[in-house]
Write a structure and sequence with these properties.
Length: 85
């Protein structure tokens, strides 16, 4: 079944079933990537949240990087000067 065939059915799911589907897909993708998010014991949701919290995800934004802000400001100033010339 293709994704385009599956999406109308997913849209008909209840909110709770959509959350269950997200959980299922997260576990399936993690397993394909060699990670096991299922502990097989106790509260799997708490274990999942704990493992997700311990991951080292890094989010970069030019707004938090002074060098990037200065570089973008310089480019904007040059573009403004060229359009006024």
């Amino acid at each position: 079944m293709s994704l385009s065939e599956l999406l109308p059915t997913v849209n008909q799911l209840s909110h709770q079933d959509k959350l269950r589907l997200i959980h299922f897909l997260l576990l399936a993708v993690a397993k394909e990537d060699g990670c096991s998010l299922n502990s097989g014991e106790g509260d799997s949701e708490a274990m999942l949240l704990q493992k997700l919290a311990s991951t080292g995800a890094v989010v970069w934004s030019p707004q938090a990087d002074n060098a990037a802000v200065e570089a973008l400001s310089g480019l904007l100033a040059k573009a403004k000067e060229s359009s006024n010339a």
